[in-house]
Amino acid sequence: MRDFQYHAPATLDEALDLLSQHRESARVLAGGTDLVLMMTDRVVAPDHVIDVKNISELTRLEWSDDGALAMGAATSFRRLETSPEVRDHHPGLAEAAGEVGSWQIRNLGTVGGNLCTASPSAEIAPILLALDAEVEIAGKRGRRSVPIGQFHTGVRRTVLEPDELLLEIRIPGGRGRAGSHYLKLKERQKMDIAFVGVATVLELEAGDGVVKSARIALGAVAPTPIRAEEAESSLRGKQLSDDVLAEAGRLAAQAAKPISDVRASADYRREMVNVLTQRTLRQALHVAQSR
Hints:
The protein is an alpha+beta fold. It has twelve helices and 14 strands.
C-alpha cells in the first residue's frame, strides 16, 4: 500500500469540497472493509482518502409516518440487521444485511460502501432493488435522485461522478399487507460470497391471498442486480399455488444471465434461481399473511 493523505471531514460540505478538489485522486472511506482490501492489493491507489463516517447526515436511520425509510449511506449492516423496526417492516433487508461477512465486518461495513463497490454478488443491492429504493447523490453542483435500478452500470461501475458522494438510500412506504425475504446461495454457511442471491417483496390484496404486486430481484447472476419482470407479472392477481410458484421460478431463471466460474456453472446458477425464487416467495407470503 502506497502513502496517501487521510482526511476526516466533520461536515458534508467539507467532504464535498475535498472531493471537488481531488476528484480522480480521491477515494471515499466509510467502513473500509472493501477499500482497504483494494488498496492493499493495489487495485486502487488513491492519493487522498476521505473518511465520511463521522458526518451525521450519512449515519441517520429515520422513518416517516407512512412507513418510508431513509438511511444514510454510512449506516452499518449490523445496525440494519439488529434494528427491531427494520426486522418488522422489511425483514428481507435485515436478512440481507445479516448475510454480509462476519459480525465484525457488519459492524464496520456500510450500505453505501457496498453499493458503491458495485460487486455483482453484493447482498444488499437485490433487496433494495426489490424494495423499489432510490438513492440521493450529492456534489458541489447540487443533489440528484436516482432509482436503485439505474445506479449500477456494470461490474464495479456506478453513475457516481468522481466529485460526487452517495448520501442516502430511501425506501418508499405505503405498502399494506406486504412481506419480504432474501436468500443467498453460498458454499460455506458463513462468510462467503453469493453464487446466487434472490430478494422478493410481495404485497397481497386486503382480505385474501391474492397477489397485488410482486418484485423479484436477482444478484450474482448478471453484471448488475436485475429484476425478473416476467416472473413478477405471472404472479399478479393469483394465489400462490405450487403451479404458480413453479412458473414464477422458471421465468425468474430465464431472466438470469449468469456466467460459469470456479464457484458454479451458469446452468447450476439458473436452476438455483428457480429454487430460491420459489422459497423466497413462500416466505414473503407467510410474512404478508401475518400482517
